[in-house]
Amino acid sequence: MQGYILVVFFFFVALTEGLFINRNKCPIKKYTANKYVMGHTLLGHEDFAKHVKTVEKTAKDCNVHVYVKDSYYQMIDSAAPASTSDENLVIGHGFRFEIHDTSNKVLCNAVCLSKNPMGTFQIKCFLETIQKHGLVWSIYDSDVISDGTYESDRRGYQALKVDIQTKCQKESFKRQLLRALRRMNEEESEEFAGDNQETEAINREESESDSQDTTDIVNDEKKK
Known about the structure:
Blueprint: H1 2-17, E1 28-31, E2 37-39, E3 42-45, H2 49-61, E4 65-70, E5 94-100, E6 106-108, H3 110-113, H4 121-132, E7 136-138, E8 141-146, H5 149-152, H6 154-223
Parallel strand pairs: 2-4
Antiparallel strand pairs: 1-3, 4-5, 5-6, 5-8, 7-8
Signal peptide: 1-18
Keywords: Signal
Region (Disordered): 185-224
C-alpha cells in the first residue's frame, strides 16, 4: 500500500514539474571513468561530452592520466554567486583536475599546475593539445579545464546557471523518490522472503514431527 501511494505521488510530481518535457530536463550527465580519465565522478553538461572525449584522447596520446578532483555540484542557492574558479563547474562546463603518470602516481597537482607545469614534456603535451582543440586552461585558473562558457558570455551566465541548477535540483528530488521507492520494494521483498523461509521452517518441523509420530506408531505395533 505504501509503495502504491509513493508511485502515485511520484507521477504527480513528475507530471506537474515537467519530467516528461525535454526542455525541463536536467542536462547534467554522469560520464563513465576509463583508463585515461579517472578519479571522482565526472558530472557535466550534455554539451560538454565531446570535450570529455577530447580529454580522453589527448591523455592517451600524451601518455598521462587525468584525475578528476571535482566537477558539477548542486548549489544550496542557485541564485547565489558561484565560488571563484567554480563558475564553469556549477553549469557543468568544466572540472577540476590533476595529472597522474601511467602508474597512477601524481605527476602534477594543483600547486604544480599553478607554477611551471610546461617544464614536463607529458604535461606540456596535454595542456597545449587540449587548448588547440578548443578547451580552456589558464595559469590563473590552473587546476580547471573548461570549454569557456562562463568567459564567453558573462552577461548571460547568471540566467544560465539558475536555469541549470533549478532543473537539476528538481531532478535530484525525483531521484530521491525513486531511491525511496526502490528501498521500499527491496524491504518488502526481504520481508516476503523472510516469511517464506519461516513458513518453510514450520513446514519442515511439522513434517519431521509427523514422520517421528509415524515411526513411533510402527515401533509400538512391532512390540505388540
